[in-house]
Amino acid sequence: MGEFTGKVAFITGAARGQGRAHAVKLAAAGADIIALDLCAQIDSVPYPLATPDDLAETVKLVEETGARIVAHQADVRDRDAVKAALRDGTAKLGDRLDIVIANAGIAPMAADDAWQDVIDVNLTGVYNTVDVAMKPMVKFGNGGAIVLTSSVAGLVGLGSPVAGSVGYAAAKHGIVGLMRVYANVLAPYSIRVNSVHPAGVDTPMIDNEFTRAWLEGAAREQQQGGPDMGNPMPVQTLEADDIANAVYWLVSDAARYVTGITLPVDAGFVNKL
User: Fold this and answer.
1) Distance (Å, whole) CA 101 – CA 189
2) The predicted structure's pLDDT at residue 221
3) 241: helix, strand or coil
4) How far apart are CA 172 and CA 150, in angstroms?
5) What are the residue numbers of the active site?
6) Using CA atoms, how far apart are residues 119 and 171, in angstroms rounded to an integer?
7) CA-to-CA distance for 251 and 253, rounded, in angstroms?
8) How far apart are CA 166 and CA 120, in angstroms?
9) CB 183 within 8 A of CB 193
10) What's this model's pTM, rounded to 2 decimal places?
11) CA-to-CA separations, 233 to 46, 200, 203, 216, 230, in angstroms, rounded
12) Which of 50-54, 190-194, 205-209 has the lowest mean pLDDT?
């Protein structure tokens, strides 16, 4: 019996990266998983997004833990699609919902035409996820925990004057506002809401030629007096499991009275600024 045996977790952006890490870690502790991912390309995003094969790999890894999983290809920008996926998942996994991790996101940092897409996915998509999920959580009456994936760019003015980068920072800051409102609204139902703020994580969203080029440009700007993009601790990027460990704590009973916080997992990045 694991810590989350009998509980159900809904995770967006679950096909790879941080979302997959959350799914596998919670499943290993006994949770059943509802996994959602777009598994398709968005035109303004210059790097490859997750594929159906990526989502299938997440399903395989979760099933290897002994947990159940219901996976859907759906777009967090489409509220009805998110609702349908969640309804199907909860029906198949026992009519309960205990954990929500609104993790789906894009980072088209160097894209001039990405403002609307990054706002729609990274902010409206999070709103859609929580708005759809909180109603069955309240109805089922088991309390629970919601974690919104933001970024260090949601706490500091990190970015460059390019539409994708500015939109990313604006969306990640907006997540903090969503989190604080929902933490107040849902507290009477014993549903906790927090946000997690990673520095750079070694996932396909960072480890691609387009994002690496953007980061290299930022490093050159730093040498000329621009903002310091490095971590104070001697690590260039974090691992997805580092973020999964923090989220695991936030949704566990060990954090049963922790709500309304912005939790950096950032090797000291925010503290230096």
Assistant:
1) 18
2) 53
3) helix
4) 5
5) 168
6) 6
7) 7
8) 13
9) yes
10) 0.95
11) 30, 13, 19, 19, 9
12) 205-209
3-state secondary structure 132-184: HHHHHHHHHCCCEEEEEECCHHHCCCCCCCCHHHHHHHHHHHHHHHHHHHHHH
Q: Render pLDDT for 68-109 as a digit per residue (tens, 0 to 9).
A: 999 999 999 999 999 999 999 999 999 999 999 999 999 999
- CA atoms of 251 and 71, how far apart (whole Å): 21
Task: Tell me 257's DSSP state.
Answer: T
Cβ atoms 251, 99 nearer than 8 A: yes
The answer to whether 61 touches 15, Cβ cutoff 8 Å, is no
Using one digit for the tens of pLDDT, what is the confidence trace for 20-58? 999 999 999 999 999 999 999 999 999 999 999 999 999
**How far apart, in whole angstroms, are the C-alpha atoms of residue 250 and residue 254?**
8
Q: Which amino acid is at 102?
A: A
Q: Which of 252, 163, 237 is nearest to 199 (CA)?
A: 237
Beta bridge partners of 191: 144
In one letter, which amino acid is 161? P
Position 169, amino acid: A
| Tokens describing residue 144 | 């629970």
For 65, 74, 91, the CA distances from 40, given in Å and listed in that order, are: 27, 9, 26
In this structure, are residues 98 and 115 in contact, taking their beta carbons and an 8 Å threshold?
A: no
